[in-house]
Amino acid sequence: MTDHRMHAFRRRIGGLAYGGDYNPEQWRPEIWREDVRLMREAGVNLVSLGVFAWASLEPEPGKYEFGWLDEVMDLLHKNGIGVNLATPTAAPPVWLTHKHPEVFPVMADGRRFGFGNRLHYDPSSPIYREYAAAITTRLAERYSYHPALVMWHISNEYGPTAYNEAASVNFRLWLRRRYGDLQALNDAWSTRFWGQVYTGWDQIAVPEHPRTWMNPSRILDFKRFTSDALLECYIAERDIVRSYRTDIPVLTNFMRFYRNADYWRWAEEEDAAALDIYPDPADPGSHVPAAFQFDLFRSLKGGRPWLLMEQAASAVSQWKLNVVKEPGRMRLGSLQAVSRGADSVMFFQWRAGRGGQERFHSAMLPHSGPDSRTFREVADLGREVRLLSPVAGTTSRAGIAVLFDWNGWWGLEEVAGLPRNDFSYPETVMRHYTPLWEHHHAVDVVSPRSDLNPYKVLVVPNAYLIDDEGAEAVTAFARAGGTVLMSFFSGVVDACNRVRPDGYPGAFRRLIGAKIDEYWPARPGEEFAVRFSGGRTATASWWREDIHLETGTALATYTDGLLAGRAAVVANSFGSGRVVYFATLLNDDAFAATVLEEVRAAGVRSRFEGLPAHLECTVREDERHEYLFLLNHSADLTATVPLTGEGTDLLTGTPVTGEVTVAPLGAAVIQRAR
Fold first, then answer.
1. Fewest CB within a 10 Å sphere: which of 90, 266, 454, 567?
2. How many whole angstroms separate alpha carbon 432 and alpha carbon 449?
3. What mean pLDDT comes out for the span 223-244?
4. What is the pLDDT of residues 512-552, one digit of tens each?
């Protein structure tokens, strides 16, 4: 049914969606008509409407004012612009928080979150949920069959963590469902340590701000609970709008590298994954983590197209330094998202606001009006997005998978008491992903529950915490002939954050063919010399492991220090497969070379091998065509790509044979018969 709803959405939109957040409640009605005229000029076919409009829709409890929204919806439909209608529940009105201050979230330090921002609610609050359901119901009653409606947008960027009494009540219910009885909970949380044994459910609360350290298993379960409590809010509103009409897709917008919600669980409840992303224009390499996020969001729904829901047309306003996107960068980032599976290019927001926190956040229509660089680039991109309509609904294939797991992320970063307490899971993941991106390998992102059969190589970055099912999936992948590339400090604890028995690395001892006696974090500035079995040398830092080989062999060894002669990188044959385990942090070049050698040995080839790293090369395809995206991220260098067969550049309509030349900051999208 999800595929049916998204197919209907693409049919109603006419291909790829193009537009942004629209906030007409902030403007006079005569400006609405000017907005719509300029939207048509820019090629806009979709706007997200009403995201923060609760106070405008319900200015007093139970008093609704829909007239302005009726007029805007009618105006948009008359001009051929679809509406992604939001429930406005991310921004409860002041009358609600004044009447019921208990809906404000209490923060970890015991202070109450006040009014004046957004997301100022406890997701477990029954009062908040009641009022959220009421406004959602009224919107669904009124607009479910409005001809402008093409999608429902539930709330916005879910994220608040609350330490209220209501949260404690809901936490206890969640724990009872998870564990069944107190004995199982006490065992899972290892509560006999420090005498924390619970004898009644009412004794359990959310983790209050402690004087020193907190039970790590309790913190882990609280992170899981917080994600699920927010998801309950989403599902409640989704089910309301779906009860009125079932053929309209329903989703909410996620964020890049966001830690408070397990998007694997959330994606199961969405008709499509949707991403808000703001790469920093001041970072010349920001397009690489953006590419990973795009691959992740394509993968969240099993390779189905996803939606780019928000990005900036130029500068943002939330950082210490907010530089503009130089000419061509906005276009290139937008096409990058489409190249990696997005079926939309959306912005925050349509018209730049005169006041409020984000008054200097760029917009499709900036303060300088339509006679501006930004608007001209927006209108030019709108024309190109229409030209790319054949790409809508197409998919991608990959032979390499990278494991990304929110539970493992929480285990590494949310708790203390580890050999090092300065892990960055996103940085680790990007270190594994970047050499694959630079060498134009197609990559999917997987969870411990994903189907691994389509892949030849599985990359496992710092899987410190992994449950039994996930550990068995990785093991079975290798046993069946796959290549596993695994980094240090993996397989250490179970789903309850308890150290696995039988020595490190617990879940993966047989897989890597070695036992680890101790973890040896490096001192600041400490480096180690490493030599590979083929004679290549490297340096390592940050981390070492005292490894004792069992069935594995040393692919590289330390040549100095107390661990001289011990393995720094281990290779092991397992079943029909191969496992390479990095027991230290190799320097970037040596690590990349090793990863790429193993990928090649596993039989995975990039069809773009030999092309420069600044030229991003990706493919989307359907039954009849493939769409080759060539994106030049260099502002100085031209790139030439040899082609076999014939094709057409959709952006120019030009037939292509032999080769394609891509100018600096240029792009080509070649349609070819499969």
1. 454
2. 20
3. 98
4. 999 999 999 999 999 999 999 999 999 999 999 999 999 99
Residue environment code for 419-429, b if the CB has 16+ CB neighbours within 10 A, otherwise e: eeeebebbebb
Identify the pLDDT of residue 116: 86
- What's the rounded Cα separation, in Å, for the pair 161 and 22? 28
Residue with tokens 């989403």: 234
Q: How many CB atoms lie within 10 A of CB 494?
A: 20
Which residues make up the CATH 3.40.50.880 domain(s) of the chain?
400-601
Question: What are the beta bridge partners of residue 401?
Answer: 444, 458
What angle, rounded to 10 degrees, do the helices at 29-42 and 373-387 form?
A: 60
H/E stretch holding 150:
strand 149-154
Amino acid at 42: A
Euclidean distance between CA atoms 370 and 456, whole angstroms: 50
Task: Take residue 215 and report the two structure tokens written for it.
Answer: 């039970």
> What are the residue numbers of the active site?
157, 310
Alpha carbon separation from 51 to 56, 77, 111, 386 (Å, rounded): 11, 18, 27, 26
CA distance 198 to 201: 7
User: What letter represents residue 137's amino acid?
Assistant: T
Radius of gyration of the chain from its Cα atoms, rounded to whole angstroms = 26
Query: What span, in angstroms and rounded, lies between the C-alpha atoms of 220 and 44?
Result: 43
Residue 210 has pLDDT above 70, yes or no: no
Residue type at position 161: T
Model confidence pLDDT, tens digit, residues 619-664 = 999 999 999 999 999 999 999 999 988 999 999 999 999 999 999 9
**Strand ordering across the sheet containing 274-276:** 250-251, 149-154, 82-87, 46-49, 17-22, 342-347, 306-310, 274-276, 254-255
Cα–Cα dist 82/410, whole Å: 39
Listed in order, the ranges of the chain carrying CATH 3.20.20.80 are: 54-64+72-247
DSSP per-residue codes, 493-513:
B-TTSPBPSSSBTGGGHHHHT
Would you tell me which CATH number, out of the four given (3.20.20.80, 2.40.50.140, 1.10.3210.10, 3.40.190.10), belongs to the domain 54-64+72-247? 3.20.20.80
